[in-house]
Amino acid sequence: MRVVDVADGDPLLETLYEDLLVPSFPPDELETLEWVRDGLAGGSVAVSAVLDDAGVPEAVAVGEWDAAGRVLLLSYLTVRPRARSGGLGGLLMGVVAGAWQERFRPLLTLAEVEHPLAHKADGERGDPAARLRFYARHGARALDIPYFQPALRPGAERVHGMLLLVLARASGTGGERPDTVDPGPVRSFLEDYLLSGEEHRADGPVLRMRDALARPGGVRLLPLDDVRALPLSVPDGAVRP
């Protein structure tokens, strides 16, 4: 097994997208192949993959860089079903914690993942509970924000029941209280993300997210061991599972 970085124009990208990303993520959660290509060309997207000895891709990670807020988002990380629990996800997390940090120098490194209470396990797409345990082993904690993924393009839907995890943070990004982060970079990232993905309407889910960012002392960081204690976004009128 070897880890490779995917460059702009690399023909491997289409294979990674069609063979690994498309089966692993629902359409509303997945950016288009053109989006990934444009981001690679412009330097705002990073793609790293694990290839077997024959050059067949077994795992991939896609990151998005928000230069304005200096926030790096691990948008996607997936391992082919036959290769799961074999350490390949850990190899890619090593890239996120190493080479990607050197390249971008982010204030915060985040990841968006499905909340186990809102999304069911699937043989192809994986188990949200197991995924959360994986990130917990790598030191991640959840931001205490009822997060939803915005609509990624016209015709797509918001994805509620998501968690925004902190994978790494630079010194000086702590809040006023222990186990908190400065809301500034998070707010900048979320405003850019929402504005780029959908009409920025001030409905209930948006207002609840803004309220969480305005709490005194910073945004709390929560351990991942008790899923019922983690924030959960729901559409207006819906009941928390």
UniProtKB/TrEMBL annotation:
Q: Which domain of life is it from?
A: Bacteria
Instruction: Tell me which InterPro entries the record gives.
Output: Acyl_CoA_acyltransferase
From the Swiss-Prot or TrEMBL record, give the protein name: N-acetyltransferase domain-containing protein
